[in-house]
Amino acid sequence: MIGDTDTLLVDGPGTLFEIDGDDKNLVPGSALIGRDLSGVKWRVSRIRAATDGTREDALRIVAAVQEDGDFYEEEERHAYNSVPVGEIVTLWEDDHGQWTLALVEL
Asked: Quick one: CA dihedral 3, 68, 7, 59, positive or negative?
């Protein structure tokens, strides 16, 4: 997980990667299957957690984050959606500015 709680299951094909420092054109993991990334600078940019597709399962992940206690919930929806799918329902950020967790309705 983000902290020291449960293991975070990741949807690899739905996770977005930054390739060669291009943070404007993120590449889904599904587009990287079979691609040789040796010698290429890459990093995970947006991790998509694996859920069963229900709101309840997404909230299960949020509950695990809340157990860590080192976060705050945004009071308002953000107009800018940094995840290029769906609509942000709620955002949580850690107190240190290292991560943002978005509950996105697809």
From this structure: negative
Beta strands in the chain (DSSP E): 16-19, 22-28, 42-46, 71-73, 87-94, 100-105
Contact 48, 16 (CB under 8 A): yes
Distance between start and end Cα atoms, the chain: 22
DSSP 25: E
Can you tell me whether residue 10 is helix, strand or coil?
A: strand
Sheet with 100-105: list strands edge to edge.
Answer: 71-73, 87-94, 100-105
Using a pLDDT cut of 70, give the percent of the chain over it: 79
Structural tokens at position 87: 């609509």
Token pair of 24 as six digits: 């404007």
Tens digits of per-residue pLDDT, 32-67? Answer: 999 999 999 999 888 888 888 888 888 887 777 777
